[in-house]
Amino acid sequence: MESESNQGVVRKGFSWGLVLGLALLGFSRSVGWALNKGLSFPLLSSYTQSAFVKGTILALEGLIGILVPPLLGYYSDTLKSKHGRRRPFIMIGGLLAGIAAIMIYTAYAMSVPLIGFALTLAFFYLSMHLYTAQFRALMPDTVESGKRGTASGVITLLEWAGNLFLFGLAGYLIAKAVDMTGESEGIKALTQTPYLKIPFLVTAFFLIGAAVFVYLIVREPEAPDIEENESLGEYLWSIVRNRDFLKFYAAQTLWWMSFEFIAVFLYGILAFILYGSATEENIKAVTSLGLYLMALFNVAVLLGALPGGIIYDKLGRRLSIVLGGLIFAIPQIWGWFITTKAQITIALGIAGIGWGILMAASYPVIGDLLTKFEREAFTGRYYGFFEATRSLPVLLAGTIGGAIVDLAGENYRVLFPIGALLVLLALPMVWMMKNLDVEGGKE
């Protein structure tokens, strides 16, 4: 990496310093999302037992993620600033997200009404999505095609390590709270102790610290001149018009919806399988187990992420994605028949490896397609849409998943086979893509 002028000119290649800087940012963001996944559902259970209400509130993340990243990613592409195109968004978003994490704890501790707690969660989601597209776009901005799989593997590894860190910390604090209070229900014990605020404070520290670090240390490439900048409408139409982009975005929407069915309703699934119903008491009773299983899943993702990136670069783009998808889907088919903790543990472990391969292999696809079509100046807007197709499933999974569970007589187990079906529908779309064989990979 060579630096010229205040902003700096970055030669595309593979810089470990740059990749590790982006990985640190990914780690901090994952700590934030893990805080949401690990504690929001149990805390909301103190307000309501309705799967639909809880799912709808958590689905606000998806609604905001559909709207904000595509818009701000689009405008970041043409931002002319001595601070870069992406870093100003990262700095502002990281600061606000850290503040919002503290606000979530404060709102719960002050026993605000459900609407107030929901609005606080919505502010956190908005803050996180202010710089989602910009974070994603920095990697293809600075790493050349053919080496993006390896970079993606490293970034994905640290992202899911952030999840593991938060889930491990929350599990440890719950264990200490149980010892202190003698309360058998983990989340209930945690809310009775000063330990509840620690995950929120730690999350705020990482979100703010990583944003400041990237802003001060990471150097962006000089903004390219865009001679024929497409309008917002033209940009959205170009995605629909190009079959490869459309196929990939549709496929990603399906496999993320499969993931979110399980992630959003994991506590309900565990309570239903192990206790026969997802009452507030049963959900709180499985909180510690849920955090342990989330940590286990993330360990498995780590095991799949780095080889997944290498497979993408060396053995083929389509093959790596299909392989990861199949490994992720098979345990979900088995999920309909699972009855014990041991079976749940094994299934999530296998699924995690597949998910790690799938995540590492899918991240570089948009950058490689933009390279193929000579549209690399537009990484912000296309990764904004990339993030929207990851957020739409949160919206759909929270609302549709909750409605399905309610219609099925609160049978959370039904989400497993539906999730497997969505993944199996997605994989042929990737296999039929025509322009995934860019330089640096084998097909």
From TrEMBL:
Domain Major facilitator superfamily (MFS) profile: 252-443
Keywords of the record: Membrane, Transmembrane, Transmembrane helix
PROSITE patterns: MFS
Residue spans crossing the bilayer: 14-35, 55-76, 88-108, 114-133, 154-175, 195-218, 253-277, 289-312, 319-338, 344-370, 414-433
InterPro entries: MFS, MFS_dom, MFS_trans_sf
The keyword Membrane appears for this protein: yes
Example GO molecular function: transmembrane transporter activity
PANTHER family documented for this protein: MAJOR FACILITATOR SUPERFAMILY (MFS) PROFILE DOMAIN-CONTAINING PROTEIN, PTHR23528
Name of this chain's protein: Predicted permease, major facilitator superfamily
